[in-house]
Amino acid sequence: MVPAFEQIMPPLEGETATTTHHSNAGNNGGIDGNKSRVTVVGSGSWGSVAAKLIASNILNITSFHDELKMWVFEETLQSGEKLTDAINRTNENVKYLPGIKLGNNVVADPDLDNAVKDANMLVFVTPHQFIDHICKSLVGKLRSDVEAISLIKGMEVKIEGPCLISTFISEQLGINCSVLMGANLANEIAEEKFSEATVGYRDNREIAEQWVQLFSTPYFMVTPVKDVEGVELCGTLKNVVAIAAGFVDGLAMGNNTKAAIMRLGLREMRDFSKLLFSSVEDNTFYESCGVADVITTCFGGRNRKVAEAFAKNGGKRSFDELEVEILQGQKLQGVSTAREVYEVLRHQGWLESFPLFATVHEICISHLPPSAIVNYSKRKPILPLSEVSAH
Ligand SMILES: NC(=O)c1ccc[n+]([C@@H]2O[C@H](COP(=O)([O-])OP(=O)(O)OC[C@H]3O[C@@H](n4cnc5c(N)ncnc54)[C@H](O)[C@@H]3O)[C@@H](O)[C@H]2O)c1
């Protein structure tokens, strides 16, 4: 029998309470007959697009207050103006999503406590390395009926094992947390080009429908799936596959090689997810959060782009250096996720069964050259773990 996540890492204190949490968010307009209020915690490119999508919808849902707050990690722009002031003055996130109007009902706020205090629906969308600090500072400051959704890709690795960001948010804040993942390059959705996304929920379909309603537009089609772990792991692990795809591009290995790497990556995503959580559904990998996100990230995403530059430079310039130079303040997720996945694989003794994931990390830390990404004859998995688990 394959060890499931629940067996590796016992439920942490408060987990049962959070997973069975039922909120009245949005069903009658929130507590005391007041209207529901949404706050977006984060204001990078995806955070700004999330704000734009929700802002356009709440104007048409009577149970929601018209105003949408967006918490901004304050920065001073080259002009000397504060980012928050620039967003509120221009209605654009001039640094992370220039040229796109967010909607006049979006109010940027640099004060985290103030931004969340009235909200009963919280959208977490920051790079994952900042969520620990954000959650700690929010303890005891939220409404009692808060529902959350995480758009964050990545995971926290504790000594006991991996912790998904949605679980981390639930545990830290004692609230239910759904997820939204998908083939969603922020700049394309900002331009209202059609795409899809997947909402992963735990057990409350009503809340999932509420999130679907908040995010859906004619150009953004959202589907709910009762598999929060599967959806979130897809969104997290595809960034590791995108790094591998970037190496292939940087070495000009061609389309067949890239397709092979994407297929092997998707298989490792599925096997890894199912080993961690026996509840993960195969069908989740056919949703937007699965195969579609692998495709878009391996062709257009920032992880692919920086990994391509890393390989072109023969691994001689570090990812940190290239991230600063190429992304200009945006954050790379795939390299840290590869390290986190590697730690889990090593801890569990699974390294040999996940040669692609292991190789990506070893290339990132310069233990292997970028060309090692295709050394499959030497590092072939003995048997795919999903097949092992089926026996
Ligand atoms: N951009 C996309 O296309 C996209 C699509 C889907 C999911 N995501 C995910 O959404 C999440 C947020 O990404 P993004 O693209 O909106 O951000 P981003 O990379 O565009 O921007 C970085 C953000 O981090 C903030 N920041 C910097 N230092 C900080 C600190 N110390 N504390 C808190 N915040 C700090 C910046 O102000 C900025 O808002 C990530 O998990 C990402 O993987 C991104």
UniProtKB/TrEMBL annotation:
Active site: 238
Gene3D superfamilies to which the protein is assigned, alphabetical: N-(1-d-carboxylethyl)-l-norvaline Dehydrogenase, domain 2 (1.10.1040.10), NAD(P)-binding Rossmann-like Domain (3.40.50.720)
NCBIfam families with a match to the protein in the record: glycerol3P_DH
Broad EC category: oxidoreductase
Catalysed reactions, semicolon-separated: sn-glycerol 3-phosphate + NAD(+) = dihydroxyacetone phosphate + NADH + H(+)
GO MF, one example: protein homodimerization activity
Domain Glycerol-3-phosphate dehydrogenase NAD-dependent C-terminal: from-to ranges: 227-374
UniProt keyword terms in alphabetical order: NAD, Oxidoreductase
Name of protein: Glycerol-3-phosphate dehydrogenase [NAD(+)]
UniProt keyword annotation of Membrane present: no
EC numbers on record: 1.1.1.8
Annotated source species: Hibiscus trionum (Flower of an hour)
Record family assignment: Belongs to the NAD-dependent glycerol-3-phosphate dehydrogenase family.
Location of region: Disordered: 1-34
Biased composition annotated in UniProt, kind: Polar residues: 16-26
InterPro entries in the cross-refs: 6-PGluconate_DH-like_C_sf, 6PGD_dom2, G3P_DH_NAD-dep, G3P_DH_NAD-dep_C, G3P_DH_NAD-dep_euk, G3P_DH_NAD-dep_N, NAD(P)-bd_dom_sf
